Write the structure tokens for this entry.
Amino acid sequence: MRSHHIVAAVFFAVALTGGAVAQQKTVVVLGTATPGGGFPLYGAAYSSTINEMDPTLSIEPKNTRGSTENIPLIESGGIHIGQATGEVTYEALAGIGRPKANLRIINAMYSNSGMFIVRADGPYRALADLKGKPIAWGASGSGFVVLARYAFDGLGMDIAKDFQPIFLEKAADGPAMVLDGRAAALWGGGVGWPGFVAVAKGPSGARFIAPSADEIKRIVAKHGFIKPITLPAGSYPGQDAPVATLGSWAFVLAAPSLPDDIAYRIARALHKGESAIGAKLAQAKESTLANTLAAAPRQDLIHPGVLKYMREAGVLR
């Protein structure tokens, strides 16, 4: 049975305009993160696109403290849907550091891939070459650092013990350390990530180092929420070939009690608006039905209303 308190609390707001009753809208509150980060940017593009594509929906973004607050807010009914990184989603579903969460995926947002960048004039060409070397892993609270911990755990390594770890006060400090030789490599990822742009534009250019095909298999076998991801050629200055690596997907999540009809309508509006959301935010081009199906750790974690639309759209048979 679905919980009725969510339905009652939410879902119909009647807008009164000039004394006439406007079309009833289903209000859905979306938890994002603190202003200035990537989640609120995505939330703005997501809500405006869905609202344009389905005038019966009113997705309302709300600033929160981000992934780690959004999941408890979904559970308590404080928000209806919320954004979360792949690592936070995985830990919530697995009950790591908290009770196991009961969540459903509305859609995959975009992928965060992980890899190293080194100076092109340096000797490093494979992961093994970096073992024991000073590595700028990123700011200690960063999702990139969490991804690195899981990825290297899959290879039987510890990022704090098998390397000389440098955890940054702020992400912007990393590139200078690689450029002046204090760090052998900087860990990060994604398309056009500022830290990698700075190193790639340095006087000696840059080279990327990612796990090998065999290493990727070993990591994915141990941590199923980590997925193979390809960084397209041309994502950085001088990067003329794609880089096969791995990473995790951020998601929009809901409680199972979100009515199927609402999840269905969100999925349909997002699918209709794929080109519109991509035009608003480049990263959001990845918010497709196919990517949601591929990124979900298990198909039964996708909300039933979304699965129903996937079948109708021919993405799922």
